Amino acid sequence: MESLNNFKKRCDSIIDKAYQGGVTLLNFLDEAEISVITDEIRKNPTINLYSDGKIIDADRKRFIVSPYEIDDLDFKIDVFEIVYNKKFYDVNHRSILGSLMSLGIKRECIGDIVFNENRAFFAATKEISSFLLEEFRFIGKAPVELKLIDFEVKNIINYEFKTHFLASIRLDSIVANGFNISRNIAQEMIMEGLVYINHVLCQNTSHEVKVGDQISVRHKGKIILKDIGGKSRSGRIAVNIGRRI
Question: Do the Cβ atoms of 100 and 110 come closer than 8 Å?
Fold first, then answer.
């Protein structure tokens, strides 16, 4: 995965191409990259930006950058169901992604991986669909079959909640406890531009987090501040933080 600085440079080239009349279809972008390209296009209001992840409420999406309006959009995304014997095998997001990567597939070619009603699905660029149907045969030791689907799938987000007693509800404190890392590391991540609150970049370590705020840390995942309780005898604040699972 390219660095955000390199991606910003690529956005400049894509925008230049649009001003010359060219249309660009990008592979799947993560939340940080989505924030970058959205900000860059906002500075160029004559350029059109379209997005879709094919899965409802998708985190990862493909984007089309165009100098003109497009009525018939084609993001070239296929969604597959992974069929396997649930009685004998257990698969998860990590094992699915790892098996896809072991085939030499780049991360940006894979969209969301979701579990819905005990069924596993993932989105992929249409450009690699034939390869996937031929080569994706195992997740670990579990034999699998891919089925191309034509019905809607929703990204259902689940969190594992834990109560913490904190001195404050500053962003660095919430991130440190939510991801079980040191406060110094949390501060570094925030200042490096790796932390987003409700999809908006925040580099202020002392920002006060509010109930309902969703916090994303690039390469680590998401947490949410569910509620704030009372104070302990020592004056620490009880907060309920959920980490996405």
Answer: yes
* Whole-structure pTM value: 0.81
Q: What gap in Å lies between CA 166 and CA 139, rounded to an integer?
A: 40
> What CATH superfamily is the domain 77-148?
RRM (RNA recognition motif) domain (3.30.70.330)
Start-end of H helices in the chain: 4-19, 31-42, 93-101, 129-135, 171-178, 183-191
Tokens of 77: 């995304």
Q: Is pLDDT of 232 > 90?
A: no
End-to-end, the C-alpha distance of the chain in Å comes to: 22
Q: What are the C-alpha distances in Å from 86 to residues 134, 145, 200?
A: 22, 13, 38
Fold category of 159-244 in CATH: 3.10.290
Q: Give the residue carrying structure tokens 């996405």.
A: 244
Measured CA to CA, the distance from residue 22 to residue 33 in angstroms comes to 21
